[in-house]
Here is the input.
Amino acid sequence: MVLVLYANMYSFVFLQLLTLYVLSCSVPGFLAGNDNSKDYCIIGAGPGGLQMGYFLERAKRDYVIFERANTSGAFFIRYPRHRKLISINKRHTGKTNKEFNLRHDWNSLLSDDESLQMRHYSKEFFPPADDYVRYLRDYAKNLELNIQYNTNIGNIQQVETDGNVTHHFTMDDQSGNGYTCRYLIICTGISTPNDPDFLGSEHTDSYDDMSLDTDDYEGQSVLILGRGNSAFETADHIVGSTNLIHMISRSRLRLAWETHYVGDLRAINNGLLDTYMLKSLDGQLEGDVADMMIIKRSDGKLVLGVPYDRDALSELHRDLKNGNISSVNISERFNVDEMTVDTLDFGLPDNFALRDPYDRIIRCLGFKFDFDIFNRKSCNVTAGQGRKKKFPAIKANYESLKVPGLFFAGTNTHSLDFRKSAGGFIHGFRYTARALHNILEWRNHQVPWPSVRQPITELLNHIIKRINEASGTYQMFGVLGDVIILANDDTEYIYLEEYPLKMLHAIPGITGYSANRILVVSLEYGYDFSGPGKDVFRRNRAIGEPSEAHLSNFLHPVIYFYKELPSIEAMRLIAKHPGAVLPEPVKVHHMVEDFLTDFSAPVSHVLVLRRFLESCIEQDLRNFFDNQCFWMALTHSSPPESCKTFFLKGQRLPPYFELQGSLTREQYFGEEETIKREMEAQRHREADPIDELKPDVRNVGFGFEEHSEL
Here is the structure.
């Protein structure tokens, strides 16, 4: 019997060792202790990768950052080509609050090191890219992040183990070295130039390799393909040397000040709009390069044509790609050696807008995600839909849509808020990276979402403080919000900061906290205020009356109240309505917009917010002096919560004149000042009467039916 038992035990041990041996052969670095095996692998040491590395380093997790270049932030060594960032560096706000100042610092990453702020690296409002490269290098060095440089990762595969429960990823570098990690975080950004294939594209220059010497454009006519910031940045760089600049794009121009989306055309780059609208030869129009062909004449001039027959264009394209014809053959076919192209050959009118030849055509068509790093057979990372196809398709928790355990951070996650918020930019994704870290901490290490638990009497002040200081919800408006979980029969609350609003239905599984009755604090623009062609400077653009706060246009706080978490079906339904942020709540409160973005006005903001909160939790949130608490304790079965929390537990706040000994009010303040103070107090009582001080024997409770104003 003993021999059989030992035989079974040795068989089990042998099978376990055999399993480990097989995995060590098929998964490089699988065995514990191998330097090539980590819990977390981050691909890319740009801003997104460095930010994720900071959070993992601070949490003392087992991680490594792979970077193909020999330095961090390598993208900014080359881009933007004209070396001026369009992310603002507002060094002075008149305040010393670091969190508030981050609202206006679009370049700094989050850290505990006060020296790692962009204001210490450049005094310019739009900093030079070279200064940002220096900043990122210092960030990586000073925080001692674990970065492996000169490592170009590819052939990323997923190896399933333990019955689909645990997922391991393998990958190779340029030297054939293998690496293994349990969780993979892609932070490579959107760094691959978008170069669509069209007839004659070989005759064009790209934003990536165009000359930066303005003398090369002296006296030339230039056509720019694209209408984003890179296109206008290029136009501004060469406009002083050219005859004219024409710009063509697939869709209409989108101005950032109209859309409130920082990825649209910024004012710093829109000089060409002046020369266009002030009739100085330059111009901008709409058209799809896929429907065009570019032909090079024998004198080197470039002619743009749009064949009227799309089938014929497709046939030409196929023949050109297959080598059946050449660009020379096409030039001869369309007789382009004339002074201008014979547009009748294309079936176009003789006043075709782009009929004159160009000396240069420059492609400025943006960037896209590099999907080639994945082995598609075992790691099928898919692209987004429509305009989001340049981003990987991901879930609201930043995980790949089809590959469990594969996460994205940085610009890669912008498909979740494309053309809505700032998730594709440093001042936005530094907060979504922190949200991802919090998600992974609970999911992998059972560390709950960072929170603050306080008595319900502190709720009003807590919300006021957050909406006036918080940077994460300010930058990621409508995407990240503060969630307040009402606990212990609404006598306490748990405050979760910067939670992904699209995951509102999944709070327990994401944060580690059970939740039912919740408040959500979000910052939002007016429903119909933003968009191409909107007159955002119209005379009646602002609202000042608190009773019309729901009509506010500019960024303002919106508070939602739910008696139970929204269902996943409700969240999916709301995703189909672009203008909506959250499903319909039990109650909602808009705080009136403010020109100073200061939501602390005693009446217009604080008073109406308090009354809204009181109507949700059915409690009085005011603080009372001890004599008021004493009176209500005698006349009410349930005095206000502040009295329960302090006065009835032996904590009392004496009148201020008693703090000076036995002086009376008149002796301390003087008779005239006492009268002034009493009159001021009377005005406050009339504005906000304390009806609760009257005995209410009709109800067991606090008698909220007397609050007709609620």
About this structure: The mean pLDDT is 85. The first strand starts at residue 37 and ends at 43.
